[in-house]
Design the sequence.
């Protein structure tokens, strides 16, 4: 159920450490890092399956009540021997509504009011029921300056709007209070994932994050989110389809999927076919998003980066390379941290699954005074 790197913590002192917390649909992951000689250094990490806390199998997506979530988070903090309460917390993309909007040319002082006004068209609940945030997306065209010396774009401004319902914030706040953690911020998991999975550069990349319940797609250009999409199919769907098709328990199906994946050989032909059908659907949707982006912006995506526990399925990347006409790689977020060299292979393999937690921790570390 759990995998831990707690032995690492004994090598480091406790001061200036931060946590990255990722409560996913099927597991909770935690990373503790600190700054040493200007570098982010890994202290400890851990992962714990959430299925058993709902009396279900490992790998199942669950919706735990706050008290059970508190129990799970407390358990992973204890097992991984974390030593700080300062944390950055990632919220699931499903808890938010994101929209790309264009606002009229206005001065900087009026942007917030105009965004709130325009956001009403895209958010189906009263704004007092959500936490609203936004980010201006830089355009390539030039700026002009009005009479008040306020920069105003010729054709308005493109804005990414994010709204999170207060109910989700309240739930996470109660979990953090119940586990005695001190959250420095909450952010949508897509920003944590992008921070950990991508390097700085001018290229355009697509991040495919496959979890248990769903698969998230992010297209990022010059470090800026340009498009996002949720596919309502994840690794759990493969397990449930296998269980039904082969008349075996969900636990047996999950184990078969993890052990063999797409590498089971001729004797596992039906397993391979079922997995392939499910992944083909995901890749079809992802390719549609790619084509829509390329058509809208007349730009190609140079690389597809895989994150999330679902992409660790054996043979996943081979099928992805066939499906996408571009470079496909696994995310390597541990490369952004100093880690013991003798565990390099382990960190490379675990990287895609810990991208969100690492991304949240990196931001938390950067915000230390």
Sequence:
């Amino acid at each position: 159920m759990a995998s831990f790197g707690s032995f690492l913590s004994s090598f480091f002192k406790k001061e200036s450490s931060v946590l990255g917390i990722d409560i996913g649909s099927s597991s909770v992951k935690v990373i503790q890092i600190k700054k040493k000689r200007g570098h982010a250094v890994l202290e400890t990490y851990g992962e714990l399956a959430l299925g058993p806390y709902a009396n279900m199998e490992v790998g199942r997506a669950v919706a735990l009540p706050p008290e059970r979530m508190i129990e799970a988070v407390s358990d992973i903090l204890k097992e991984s021997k974390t030593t700080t309460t300062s944390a950055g917390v990632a919220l699931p993309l499903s808890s938010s509504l994101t929209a790309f909007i264009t606002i009229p040319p206005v001065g900087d002082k009026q942007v917030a009011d105009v965004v709130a006004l325009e956001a009403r068209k895209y958010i189906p609940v009263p704004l007092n029921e959500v936490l609203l945030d936004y980010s201006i997306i830089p355009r390539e065209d030039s700026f002009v300056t009005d009479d008040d010396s306020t920069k105003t774009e010729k054709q308005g401004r493109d804005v990414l709007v994010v709204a999170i319902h207060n109910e989700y914030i309240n739930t996470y706040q109660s979990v953090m209070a119940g586990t005695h953690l001190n959250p420095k911020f909450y952010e949508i998991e897509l920003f944590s994932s992008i921070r950990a999975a991508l390097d700085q550069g001018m290229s355009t990349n697509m991040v495919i994050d496959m979890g248990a319940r769903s698969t998230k797609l992010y297209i990022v250009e010059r470090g800026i989110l340009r498009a996002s999409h949720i596919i309502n199919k994840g690794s759990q769907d493969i397990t449930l389809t296998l269980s039904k098709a082969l008349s075996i328990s969900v636990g047996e199906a999950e184990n078969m999927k993890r052990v063999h994946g797409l590498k089971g050989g001729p004797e596992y032909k039906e397993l391979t076919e079922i997995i392939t059908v499910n992944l083909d659907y995901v890749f079809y949707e992802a390719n549609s998003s790619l084509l829509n982006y390329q058509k809208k912006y007349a730009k190609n995506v140079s690389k597809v980066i895989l994150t999330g526990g679902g992409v660790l399925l054996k043979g996943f990347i081979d099928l992805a390379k066939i499906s996408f006409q571009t470079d496909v790689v696994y995310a390597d977020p541990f490369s952004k941290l100093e880690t013991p060299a003798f565990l390099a292979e382990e960190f490379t393999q675990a990287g895609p699954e810990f991208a969100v937690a690492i991304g949240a921790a990196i931001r938390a570390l950067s915000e230390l005074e």
About this structure: The domain at 199-330 is CATH 3.30.420.40 (Nucleotidyltransferase; domain 5).
